[in-house]
Write a structure and sequence with these properties.
Strand content: 25-35%
Order of helices and strands: EEHHEEHEEHE
Distance between the termini: 15 Å
Number of helices: 4
Shape: globular
Structural class: alpha+beta
Number of strands: 7
Helix content: 25-40%
Oligomer: single chain
Strand order of the largest sheet: 4-5-6-7
Length: 110
């Protein structure tokens, strides 16, 4: 899935999944996106991201700038798994910093 971002202030306005797009051929993104999706902030820990993904049964989360609320990236279950594999653990006491994939604003037309 992909975050849907307001280009005027870079704030998250929705999230669109592959199934959203394939289930409604020809529809406008605004009509099929999930509005006000669950998200995390860039200072959250990796295990927190994983717990939120499990709780809401999603495979990825938009990452927001904790200071300004702008969407700065996307983290997936695969990202957390890679972090876990590198460190050997992903328990609650870890100090794993959340590493968001930076969005390439030029590659996504809004």
């Amino acid at each position: 899935g992909l975050p849907v971002i307001d280009p005027t202030d870079e704030r998250l306005v929705g999230f669109v999944s592959k199934s959203d797009l394939t289930s409604r051929d020809g529809a406008v993104v605004e009509d099929v996106m999930t509005q006000s999706p669950v998200s995390i902030v860039d200072s959250d820990l990796a295990f927190e991201a994983l717990e939120i993904m499990r709780q809401f049964e999603v495979r990825s989360l938009p990452v927001l700038d904790g200071e300004h609320g702008r969407c700065v990236g996307l983290i997936t279950m695969d990202d957390v798994a890679k972090t876990k594999a590198k460190s050997g653990t992903c328990e609650g006491g870890d100090d794993l910093a959340l590493r968001a994939l930076q969005l390439d604003k030029d590659s996504v037309d809004m």
